[in-house]
């Protein structure tokens, strides 16, 4: 068994399709199929059940996946350890995320790594959860930073400390600006600008929708956004009130906008996520280890 072929097999198990795995591995589908067939012949076991739309693992395939993960992880760990000894870890790390003040925790880890490993370069992609998870699933990102509510069932994750506070961004000359907080009654009849991600129903609990006590669909949503900058422009133009997270819009004394928190208080946590069974480069593995050291609570 070659390590390369084991990685091919794990890619198929991860993607659930020959086509998806071939794309992620930059191989042709016939080449990948032939490699898998040779592996099955070598082991004298059927490893995959090829359905019309999806490939699933046989019981023997599930055993091999577990063993292959252990083998690949050990090889990667050994390589990383020897690279660390010579302090020559380099490469690119791709991280996607939404707008949040909690990105400061990612920045802290990036700063630490760059101080010790200046050859590692970071590439940051900004987008909403849909944008980020699409790129994660295609292998274009190593990690994603997702703002709750979001479905984490396909990913491994680390929860970041702190939570973002929801509220309303409005013009300072608005009547609501005289209030210290905003309640549901205050929003009825007002033109609202809402986050598409927060509005989306997922398999996980959606505290944002629940805050509106079943009245969200009856409110006057005049526009939806995926990132806050354009929403702030629309608020300045008098189009409506943006329901968003704190610390994303300039509400300083020089700004014509202000932020008022919702009451009852509504918060969203953040998670840094990566694909299950992901095989990382030494640089990405280093980043993950640093994140785990900082933010994982020991059992």
Label this structure with key terms:
D-Maltodextrin-Binding Protein, domain 2, alpha/beta, Arc Repressor Mutant, subunit A, 299 residues, 3 domains, 11 helices
How is this structure best described in words?
The structure is a single chain. The chain has 299 residues and is an alpha/beta fold. The protein has 3 domains: 3-84, Arc Repressor Mutant, subunit A (Orthogonal Bundle); 89-162 and 270-295, D-Maltodextrin-Binding Protein, domain 2, CATH 3.40.190.10; 164-267, D-Maltodextrin-Binding Protein, domain 2, CATH 3.40.190. The protein has helices spanning 3-15, 18-25, 29-43, 59-86, 103-116, 129-137, 184-187, 196-199, 207-211, 228-236, 282-295; strands at residues 48-50, 55-57, 91-97, 120-126, 143-147, 155-159, 164-171, 192-195, 221-225, 241-245, 257-261, 267-268, 270-275. Strands 7, 8, 9, 10, 11 and 12 form a 6-stranded mixed sheet that branches. The chain is elongated. The model has no long low-confidence stretch (mean pLDDT 88).
